[in-house]
Design goal:
Length: 252
């Protein structure tokens, strides 16, 4: 090969290699930047959810320690007052006491929904069992639970995220799917915990739901991603809905 041609060829190869290096560096920088943005977004979501849970816990404590205690005191005072009134007044007081009892039940339910202390006190396994029983009795949705003992114990953030996702998925099944039955399954394998909530309802078009920004789906996905997990929702009109959340057991 003539020296001039060799020089041109060498220049061409060198230029191509330089361009490839520049492109590789550029793509690498883009990938690093994307990973940093994802990590920042995940951390922001984690802090936001943690702040929400803290605020819910505070409100739940105030309901339990203040409002419910005041209701109990008023109830006691009315019981005492009824003993000194005439029968008609006693009857009216009894009606007011009944209303207070109903209000107390509503506030206890609200406090529990705001902050399910059972997750912290009894663990995710028992909390999911209680959640299923609550929906079965109060909402008319039969929930079959398959939750084996978890070993090792789940990190607090993962346990709360799994509970909240199960709660939202069952709530959606009750409100929107028209389902009469749902399965709630928790499995542990290969360093991950998988939560599955499947209902037999009317289902929906997942593409359309994602396009219109369904808040329930967004909240569940954010909760999963905030603790390093992922969420998958599969559904089709007339075919029911399956929500699957996978969590690493090492998440914090």
């Amino acid at each position: 090969m003539p020296s001039r041609d060799l020089t041109v060829w060498t220049f061409f190869v060198a230029s191509a290699l330089s361009l490839a290096i520049v492109l590789a560096a550029f793509l690498g920088a883009l990938l690093i930047n994307q990973r940093r943005r994802l990590a920042t977004a995940r951390e922001h979501a984690r802090r936001m959810i943690a702040a929400q849970e803290e605020e819910r816990s505070r409100v739940a404590r105030e309901l339990h320690d203040d409002a419910l205690q005041r209701i109990a005191m008023i109830r006691h005072e009315l019981d005492d007052a009824s003993a000194y009134g005439n029968p008609e007044m006693a009857h009216r007081i009894s009606g007011v006491c009944g209303e207070l009892d109903d209000l107390g039940t509503v506030l206890r339910t609200a406090a529990h929904q705001l902050h399910p202390a059972i997750v912290e006190k009894a663990g995710l396994r028992r909390a999911l069992g209680a959640l299923a029983e609550e929906f079965s009795h109060a909402a008319g949705l039969e929930v079959r639970v398959v939750v084996p003992p978890l070993d090792p114990a789940l990190p607090s953030g993962v346990a709360v995220a799994a509970y909240r996702i199960a709660q939202e998925a069952l709530r959606n099944a009750r409100r929107h799917s028209g389902a009469g039955r749902a399965d709630l399954v928790l499995e542990e394998a290969a360093g991950t915990v998988t939560l599955v909530v499947a209902d037999t309802g009317k289902g929906f078009d997942t593409a359309a739901r994602n396009a219109d920004g369904g808040l329930g789906l967004i909240a569940m996905r954010q909760r999963a991603e905030a603790v390093g997990g992922r969420l998958d929702v599969r559904s089709r009109p007339g075919g029911g809905t399956t929500v699957t959340a996978v969590f690493p057991v090492t998440a914090s």
